[in-house]
Amino acid sequence: MKRAIWVSVAVIAAATVLLVFGVRSLLMDDQPPGEPVAVDKQVPQRPDCPAGLDLPCLGGDVAGEAKEITVVNVWAWWCDPCRAELPAVEEFARTHPEYTVVGVHADRNAGNGAALLEDLGVSLPSYQDDSGAFAAAQGLPPVVPVTVVLRGNEQVAVFAKEFTSAEELAEAVEGAV
């Protein structure tokens, strides 16, 4: 009996997450329903991304090879906390060269994601994840911003919150590793 209850709760939770993502996509995307989304549609020219994530690249400056620790900031163009946090994430990347730091834009509209990076003057290497593949693979909560710390391919920490400074992010990452 208890197992049946847990299975029902899990099914309801999964359906709720899918419903929330579906409604958010319909409300937040400026693409007409049913029209295919082209990743390169209205995407400003940006520098190349490093290898390592199997997602289309929105661009960003990167130097050297991938490090042992990777910090991934999941964001979306329509997210006000993300807009405020991205410059702090870029500053963290600049002041902590011992880590690989990248962004993942979690929305179907790559053009708006790249435009936000340009508007903010942020050159953080960022990937386009219009299907939620990264979040699903990492088991992330359905919110943005979310920051994930990886050691190789192993998840070390997940922070579902906005970081207001590079120092605050550094403290969280250093506490996790």
From TrEMBL:
UniProt keyword list: Isomerase
Signal sequence extent: none
Source superkingdom: Bacteria
Family matches, as CDD domains: TlpA_like_family
PROSITE patterns (UniProt xref): THIOREDOXIN_2 (PS51352)
Pfam families reported for this sequence: AhpC-TSA
Sequence ranges assigned to domain Thioredoxin in this UniProt record: 25-177
A molecular function GO annotation: oxidoreductase activity
Protein name, UniProt field: Thiol-disulfide isomerase or thioredoxin
Organism: Corynebacterium afermentans
